[in-house]
Structures are given as C-alpha cells and as structure tokens.
C-alpha cells in the first residue's frame, strides 16, 4: 500500500461521545474550523446536566440562558450531525483512520415533521416516573425529558408504549398529531462513519446516597440528593420552582445541608460540592428569607479564586456553617413531623440540629456509561473509574489511545469553567492530531 493511498484515506471527521457542555463546546470549535463532527448522545436531548440547574455558580448565571444558545448553535451548524438517542458500539482503526459504528435508536417521532406542540402527551394513557426529573414528576410513554429540552421533539419509550410493547392496540398519540409526525413503524439504524479523531465527554454522576442508609435517603421524604433539589428549585422543574417537601405541601423552615456524602467511599474530594452546597443555601434564602440553613462541613473547598467572594457573601448572610470532622457520618432520623440530624462536633461530641429538609451533597463519581465506552474505545480508566489522561502531562487531554481525547467530568470532577477549558484544549489537540496524520 503506497503512502499516497494511505493519505487519501485519512479522515478529518471527528466523533464526540457525549453532548453535554464540554462536548458541545468542543464540537462547535471543530465545526467552525471546518471539520465534520458527529456528536453522539445517549439521551434524547443535548445539553447535559447543566440544564438541570436553575443557576450556576459563582456568578449565578441562568443556566438555560447560558446553555440554550450553545444548543441552538450545535443544532443549526451544518458541520455538526447531532445523533441523540444513540450509542457508539465500535471504534476500530488508528488515529486519522478510525471507523465507528453507531446505533441510532428509533425515536418513533419524525425530527422534521414534529413542531414540538406537545399535543400528543395528554392522550397517552401511560404515566410513569420521569427519571430526568429525578422521579419528582411524571411523564407519558411519549415525552420530552423536561420543559425547554432541545431538540424539542418527543421520543416514545418502546418498553412503556402499549402499542410497541404489544400489550394492546393504541394509537392515541398518532391520532392526536395533525402533522403525521408519529412513526410507530420507526426502526433502529446502524450508522458507520470514518473519523480521524475522537473526544470522550460522557460527563459524571453523583454518589448514590442510598448506599449510606443512616442518612435516611429513600426513607424520609424530606431527604434530597443534589439534583433532586436542583429540579425542585428550577422554574421549569416538576414543582415550577416551589420549595415544598416531597409528597406534601409543607414549606421547609429549617434545612440542613450535609457535605462530603460518599467522600470516604470514593476516596477523593470532588472539589465542586462545597460550592454547590453554598449555592443551595443562597437559593433557599432567595425564596424563603426566614429559613434557617445549616451547612455541616469538614473542609471548605474553593477551587477557583472567583469563588471566594461568593463564599464570603453566603457565609455572612445565607447560612450557618457547622464544622464536623466527618459530616458524611451524620445520622438522620425522624423527629416528630420533621427530621433530626446528629453529627460529630468540633469537640468530638455528638451534636444535633432539627430540620424539615436535608440535602445530601454527594461526591462526583464516574458516569455509568464510562466503563462501556472505555471498552468500546479501548481506553484505560484510572483507579477511580474516570478516563485516564496522560499520567506525566499535567492538564493532559490525551488518553491511552492515540487520536482519542477526553474532556470535562469524564476525566474527573470539574466545574463548568474547567470543563469548557478542557473541551477547548481537546479540540486544539484534535486539530494538531489531524494535521500531523494528514501531512
């Protein structure tokens, strides 16, 4: 095989796995540089977990206002092919000459015919918990994950749809659509693409608080995880931003926020948990100015110089900071109609606060999809389960496979700013990689 032949078969296309903020930012940079980008996302929407937030620290920017323009730019860019509800099944080859196999699951709703009117939702006879809303709200078998989701096109859950799972004849959604956008005969597709480089940006999750039963998660309705509280507070969330206790109309008067939940189990500090815990205190005070708020913490981690001003403001007016050498070892129990949080105080003795609501600030952990993507892409994970970046190169976005790069929380816990910076770096490294292999 001649060198000229090899060069002719090199590809300038780029595959990005994960359409959160890091993936979208990297995709736009590469698209603006003239590269064809395949942006693959397992969810039926793009934007990642940032769009679950009402506001983002430290400047408390409206998250939707910040992310929506990026989402629109991605969806409208002719150099980006956005493949939602899809998964990469295989990556073969080498830098500059990869081939990827992508499974695009049937959406059962036409992306071109649907106008996003939502008239198909109410007729659907199936109701179930909405996982995107942290099970705080319900959805139908045909749904968009949340208000304002982009693309604003529903997807049908084939496991829940009465017609698709064979339980009974049902065409309620199709009958309600005057545009003929419902395609119950839609099929999964397999797409093969030639690419020169790959960026992994699958994001992260938070620690499963149910693994620490003494904290009462799943037992007491007033105990919440971070993203449950985010959706409770969000104006486009299941309660439209009304702060009430789960399964009741009670407004909390006292709220305890427990830091470092899962830190001992995962073995590292997630760096962003203190900031989002303080943000929660600020949120609560903005809606419930008479509420008493307690942040039970050990270390206070401020990973960026811009966070100091925000921290000073919150601690002065929005919360009571309570030091505990091991806040994650606190115990939550029923106390009349409320809750009691027992913790170890600075003197080593047990102390307690009473609360109506408890928020468990969980550690940031690898996304469940990470291990399968690592296997498909032939990549190493680090000892914590995140994608391993160059060990001897500080701030590296290189992985264990040439031509494959990592960005955002897929590499480790990060705030929004750090994720975007790493996405920009990954895009730059892709340009260098493609320039080198295509010379």
Structure report:
With 439 residues, this protein is an alpha/beta fold. The protein folds into 3 domains: 3-104 and 188-203 and 367-437, FAD/NAD(P)-binding domain (3-Layer(bba) Sandwich), CATH 3.50.50.60; 106-183, Alpha-Beta Plaits (2-Layer Sandwich); 207-364, FAD/NAD(P)-binding domain (3-Layer(bba) Sandwich). The chain has 10 helices and 24 strands. The chain has helices spanning 3-8, 21-32, 63-76, 172-176, 226-233, 263-266, 273-287, 307-317, 369-377, 416-437; strands at 14-17, 37-40, 55-56, 61-62, 80-83, 86-94, 97-104, 127-129, 138-140, 142-143, 155-156, 189-195, 197-200, 204-206, 223-224, 254-261, 292-297, 320-323, 331-335, 338-344, 350-355, 357-362, 364-366, 404-406. Helix 8 links the parallel strand 17 and strand 18 (320-323). The radius of gyration is 23 Å and the shape is globular.
Question: What topology does this entry show?
Answer:
Elements: H1 3-8, E1 14-17, H2 21-32, E2 37-40, E3 55-56, E4 61-62, H3 63-76, E5 80-83, E6 86-94, E7 97-104, E8 127-129, E9 138-140, E10 142-143, E11 155-156, H4 172-176, E12 189-195, E13 197-200, E14 204-206, E15 223-224, H5 226-233, E16 254-261, H6 263-266, H7 273-287, E17 292-297, H8 307-317, E18 320-323, E19 331-335, E20 338-344, E21 350-355, E22 357-362, E23 364-366, H9 369-377, E24 404-406, H10 416-437
Parallel strand pairs: 1-2, 1-13, 2-5, 13-24, 15-22, 16-17, 16-22, 17-18
Antiparallel strand pairs: 3-4, 6-7, 7-12, 8-9, 10-11, 14-23, 19-20, 20-21
Helix pairs in contact: 2-3, 2-10, 5-7, 7-8
């Amino acid at each position: 095989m001649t060198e000229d032949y090899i060069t002719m078969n090199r590809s300038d296309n780029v595959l990005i796995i994960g359409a959160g903020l890091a993936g979208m930012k990297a995709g736009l940079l590469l698209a603006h540089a003239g590269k064809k980008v395949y942006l693959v996302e397992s969810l039926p929407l793009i934007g990642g977990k940032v769009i679950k937030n009402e506001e983002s620290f430290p400047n408390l920017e409206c998250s939707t206002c910040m992310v929506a323009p990026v989402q629109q730019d991605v969806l409208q860019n002719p150099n980006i092919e956005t493949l939602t509800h899809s998964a990469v099944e295989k990556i073969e080859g080498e830098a500059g000459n990869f081939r990827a196999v992508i499974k695009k699951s049937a959406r059962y709703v036409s992306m071109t015919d649907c106008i996003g009117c939502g008239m198909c939702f109410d007729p659907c006879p199936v109701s179930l918990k909405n996982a995107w809303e942290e099970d705080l709200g319900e959805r139908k078998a045909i749904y968009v994950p949340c208000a304002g989701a982009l693309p604003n096109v529903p997807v049908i859950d084939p496991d829940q749809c009465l017609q698709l799972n064979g339980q009974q004849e049902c065409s309620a959604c199709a009958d309600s659509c005057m545009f003929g956008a419902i395609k119950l005969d839609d099929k999964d597709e397999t797409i093969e693409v030639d690419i020169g480089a790959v960026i992994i940006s699958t994001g992260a999750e938070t620690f499963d608080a149910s693994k620490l039963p003494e904290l009462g998660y799943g037992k007491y309705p007033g105990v919440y995880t971070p993203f449950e509280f985010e959706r409770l507070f969000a104006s486009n969330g299941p309660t439209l931003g009304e702060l009430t206790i789960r399964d009741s109309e009670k407004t909390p008067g006292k709220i305890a926020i427990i830091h470092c939940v899962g830190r001992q189990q995962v073995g590292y500090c997630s760096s962003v948990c203190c900031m989002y815990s303080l943000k929660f205190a600020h949120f609560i005070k903005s809606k419930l100015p008479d509420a008493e708020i307690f942040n039970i913490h050990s270390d206070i981690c401020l990973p960026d110089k811009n966070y100091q001003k925000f921290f000073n403001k919150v601690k002065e007016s929005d919360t009571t900071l309570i030091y505990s050498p091991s806040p994650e070892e606190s115990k939550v129990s029923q106390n009349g109609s409320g809750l009691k949080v027992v913790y170890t105080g600075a003197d080593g003795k047990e102390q307690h606060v009473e609360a109506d609501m408890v928020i468990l600030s969980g550690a940031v952990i690898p996304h469940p999809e990470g291990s399968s993507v690592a296997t498909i892409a032939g990549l190493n994970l680090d000892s914590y389960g995140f994608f391993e970046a160059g060990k001897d190169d500080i701030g590296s976005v290189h992985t264990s496979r040439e031509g494959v790069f990592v960005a955002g929380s897929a590499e480790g816990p990060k705030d929004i700013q750090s994720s975007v910076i790493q996405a920009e770096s990954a895009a730059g490294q892709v340009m260098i990689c493609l320039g080198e292999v295509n010379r």
